[in-house]
From TrEMBL:
It comes from the Bacteria. It holds the Pfam family SpoVAD. GO terms for molecular function: acyltransferase activity. The lineage of its organism: Bacteria, Bacillati, Bacillota, Clostridia, Lachnospirales. This is Stage V sporulation protein AD.
Length: 339
């Protein structure tokens, strides 16, 4: 097959065979385990410190635990995994660099904010489909306390959160991709572009990310010549209840009604009424853990046939926020199909 035949439309790529997801794992914190999807995750860590001395080390421990569990579920050993694509929310990706060092797998550190799971799956799928690796791992993590410490206020400050704010998920999701095996394949991807609507409210990231999600979903429809009904579910990463309303309005203005099949990982992972998470969950680990624990089993059991998975990210840092910059958004689309 010629390279051009992989390219579809303006930005998408189709995979005729499709890399298979042959192993997956999810590890989350106590609060996530108490939510509606608690029974779906592989491991629920009761200690937010995960036995470590600080929050950052705790997030690194989540990554290592999840990676080893995913490799075990795939029936592999570490040495068989050629490359690792992984990322987190912390400066210089320290959760990834310290968490994966003992794996001794060549690593590509990624930062796509909360869209990192999608970015890792996109890049990993291209590598496997092109034949550059037999097996790769895609992984993303976040931790509530480490994210609050870096982006907002230390927990000891006890600041009040607006209703538009989301709650960073303590969790990690990891996926092993290979050319054969498994019951779910990645049949195509639609990498996202950065969309900046000039919003500056870091406590309303759903609004900042919704335009990027809309852009990627519309581009996926156009590139693959599809309609919303061609997907059983269209699942965003962590728009929350505020961002979801904005996305649905944006989609309708573009001629698409996805309200009957849209789902958001940030809304699903917490019970908004009883868990006091305001707009919902967020963080790199949000969509990654929900994909591993909830979405893929639905495809494996044939309840769903085809899903468009779109992790969403708000591209800000403490530096950019303090300098008065806006919060651009990005969203990467991954088409998942039952084999």
């Amino acid at each position: 097959m010629q390279d051009k035949e992989f390219q579809v439309g303006r930005a998408s790529i189709q995979f005729p065979e499709g890399p298979r997801i042959i192993g997956r794992a999810s590890v989350v914190g106590k609060k996530e385990g108490e939510g509606p999807l608690g029974d779906c995750f592989d491991v629920i860590e009761p200690d937010p410190m995960v036995g470590c001395e600080n929050w950052e080390d705790a997030e690194s421990a989540l990554q290592k635990e999840t990676a080893d569990l995913a490799i075990e579920h795939a029936g592999l050993v570490r040495s068989e995994v050629r490359y690792l694509f992984s990322g987190d929310l912390l400066g210089q990706l320290i959760a990834t660099s310290f968490g994966t060092v003992d794996l001794e797998i060549p690593v590509f550190g990624l930062y796509g904010a909360c869209s990192t799971a999608g970015e890792a799956l996109c890049l990993g799928a291209m590598i496997v489909e092109a034949g550059y690796a037999d097996y790769i791992m895609a992984m993303a993590s976040s931790h509530f306390a480490s994210a609050e410490k870096q982006f907002r206020f230390p927990l000891e400050y006890g600041n009040q959160r607006p209703l538009s704010a989301s709650w960073t998920v303590t969790g990690c999701g990891a996926f092993l991709l290979g050319r054969q095996g498994g019951h779910v394949r990645i049949s195509g991807i639609t990498p996202g572009k950065i969309v900046d609507m000039g919003l500056k409210d870091s406590m309303n990231m759903g609004a900042c990310m919704a335009p990027a999600a809309c852009d990627t979903i519309c581009r996926n429809f156009e590139d693959f010549d599809r309609r919303p009904e061609d997907y059983d579910k269209i699942i965003t990463g962590d728009l929350g209840v505020v961002g979801q309303k904005i996305l649905l309005d944006f989609m309708k203005s573009n001629g698409y009604d996805i309200s009957d099949r849209h789902m958001d990982c940030g809304i699903e992972i917490f019970d908004r009424d009883s868990q006091d998470t305001h707009a919902g969950g967020s963080g790199c680990g949000c969509s990654a853990a929900v994909l591993a624990g909830y979405i893929l089993p639905k495809l494996e059991s044939r309840e769903w046939r085809r899903v468009l998975f779109i992790p969403t990210g708000a591209l800000l840092s403490s530096t950019s926020f303090n300098e008065g910059k806006s919060v651009p958004g990005i969203a990467h689309g991954v088409v998942l199909e039952r084999c």
